[in-house]
Amino acid sequence: MRIRRLLLPYINIFGFVAMVSLFGMARFAVAADPLGSWNEGAAKQSILEFVERVTREGSPAFVPSAERVAVFDNDGTLWPEAPLPFQAAFVFDELRRRAPLEPELADDPFVQAALQGDLSKLLAGKNHDGLMHVIGVTHAGMTTDEFDQRVNDWLATAKHPRFEKPYSELTYQPMQELLVYLRLKGFKTFIVSGGGADFMRVWSERVYGIPPENVVGSMWQARFELRDGLPVLVKTMDHLFVDDKEGKPVGIHQFIGRRPIACFGNSDGDQAMLEYTTIGNPRASFGLIVHHTDAEREYAYDANPQSSGKLTTALTRADECGWTVVDMKVDWQKIWSDPAGAPSEGVALSLVGKWLAEDIDSAGVIDLAQSTLEFSADGAVSGSSAVNRFQGQAKVDHNSCTFGPLAMTRRAGPPALMDQESKFMAALQRVVQYRIAETGLLFLIDAEGTDVLRFSKMEN
Amino acid sequence: MRIRRLLLPYINIFGFVAMVSLFGMARFAVAADPLGSWNEGAAKQSILEFVERVTREGSPAFVPSAERVAVFDNDGTLWPEAPLPFQAAFVFDELRRRAPLEPELADDPFVQAALQGDLSKLLAGKNHDGLMHVIGVTHAGMTTDEFDQRVNDWLATAKHPRFEKPYSELTYQPMQELLVYLRLKGFKTFIVSGGGADFMRVWSERVYGIPPENVVGSMWQARFELRDGLPVLVKTMDHLFVDDKEGKPVGIHQFIGRRPIACFGNSDGDQAMLEYTTIGNPRASFGLIVHHTDAEREYAYDANPQSSGKLTTALTRADECGWTVVDMKVDWQKIWSDPAGAPSEGVALSLVGKWLAEDIDSAGVIDLAQSTLEFSADGAVSGSSAVNRFQGQAKVDHNSCTFGPLAMTRRAGPPALMDQESKFMAALQRVVQYRIAETGLLFLIDAEGTDVLRFSKMEN
């Protein structure tokens, strides 16, 4: 255990005792709630207890970090899937956008059916040939770069019909907090979705902090070509892999190669991967189903969804399998996430975590004295000036960042450290903006646009 | 920039000047060679220069860590592929092991051909039906857990016919150093191999430090089943994906979803992924071909390999594409890696890196004073006692670990820090063993078996 032996000599030997305030000596127990948007209850408690069991050193159920694989369904689990899965909205919007530009689409009966909203024609037949055809028209026959661009263009303009926001701003705040919390606890977070891998990888890192290589989804094959000497990958309709139902554990095996210990879903399509994660797993494991029960704030459905997301057999199995069932209306204090950079009561996900000061007012820092700053998702900040600890609130909105009053302990320390402390705290109060550089360094900036503090991210 | 301001007050104000030795004040420039098994030359230099260009803050070619994807072929690039690819040796050894136990194999003409070494029968036909069949017999029709067990059993007993060592101990030390070096520099390292993903994932983390989710390889599909209520994945021969030649960039796209900036291969099978990595890439990029030129220490081949690994067109393209060509005989000072835990002049890969002391002789450490210890792959150690820096050599052999004489700077510091320094250095000299716990903590142990030092791994 670490002990604070450094300060004692100064207090006892060098006569700083008089400087030690009689007040404020207790160190704050800084423990901001990592799941602040979850109401207290059995669901939240089951998550916290599981994570504690598998991550606490010495716990009989301890799982090494390398094996802490957590898999998340996307549609209905991290964002909605009503009135249509968002990727289906992309298909229809793309056909509408392209029809006037590509006259040959007028001769395509399935495209015309889609444009006229004739879903029965698209869904006819065992293999839903019409639907697969229009998905192919919008997802194949172009290079991967062209496809990425189309998805980005669509996301920048399309809005959800009911909530009237860009689709990528309609993620669930409680699940975003859960993703951050698990990663802070050494988990690797993966998406395992029936949606298209290529579709999700365009925005998964920006929206969920999940990099492309951690996205497992449905896919057709691509084909490698050199065009005028330049390599391209052309999206084809060969060799479909459907990452849904029994395909999900298969996808997990093929793409991750390691059995998860935590699985989060919302429909019967997630049942097989919930079973694969939690039944007969030699490791401690956890399963959770998001039950959509909140027609007012989002949607309420299980056996009869508007389109995808049917939840019947998986719900029946939840009890015997020990899966946590989230009652969205009861368990979630807040539904919608504030996307990074948008106005927020909390802070951007990229800021969350502990930062080490590397520079204060361009004068460096003392090598052995750590001045730190930690942001929680709910806007709480805490840290250490090297001698004392402080806590308070940050207000983050787009790129602006300001700190409210910071409460501090009042220990005394050697002069060099006290000097650094006063400069550090004064600099924090001057901050009005932040930016995170490509290198991952955090810069806090004053009203003149000067970098007053530079931080590097600390390990968790 | 960090500056050492803490010590000055003590030296100047508190009268410790007399304690400052007149000798040894210079701080060591500790820069152990990260590629110690590479001879100096253009190949080594090109690697170091590329890594510096893309990782140095402020460099015009800087690439953020999230996008530093490096892909490695396996057979012939990280370990040999002669006289046969090692996975083919597994196939033949498995057939020999199973034939006496499974009489039905006696009726299988292709199995009999394999047992009799009749390669022409196996390779006949456009699709090499015989070979695919015996691969299927040894790779499908069993659960993934059963397959993993068979690969592990084989690795534990099989030996390479020429080098008479277990196959997984025949990796190339220069490439192992390169993997570690790139990861220390913020790269994500992936295997992209024509070999089977399931075959490699059994040992990739242990042998290369590459976790299963970073292994892309050839694969058939698996099938999810509940057997007596327990989930299993059964390996099938459906839906073959061949991760070779033009399949490699496809595999990179499907499994990683991000274009690499560095690619390492050794044969024409790697040409497409070298092209995909280096031609028209908006990021700075790097390609390298290992040319097998050392018949004495390993093998010498290009156009006419013993089995796989033909290198003709990729070698022709290397010059115009700016790919580095490694001349194994000239560029590699050492060929074979010392597997972790085996007798070694260097140290186990798991030790390499920088460690922070958390406990010294069960008495904790001073919160603000970092005592560190850094192992290089070649056995060099360096570190800081909080006040002074030291360097020297470690000797690591299986679980034993001892330190030679450690040269130190001789600054003076506050009494509490000097006290910690003397305890830290004395503890190091008592160490005879080490172990790395499941939690990732490093324990250094004395001759009585007592943990005298505990370290946590520091970020790079």
Automatic annotation (TrEMBL), chains A, B:
PANTHER family: HEAT SHOCK PROTEIN HSLJ (PTHR35535:SF1). It comes from the Bacteria. This is META domain protein. It comes from Aureliella helgolandensis. The lineage of its organism: Bacteria, Pseudomonadati, Planctomycetota, Planctomycetia, Pirellulales. Residues 353-455 form the DUF306 domain. Pfam families: HAD, META.
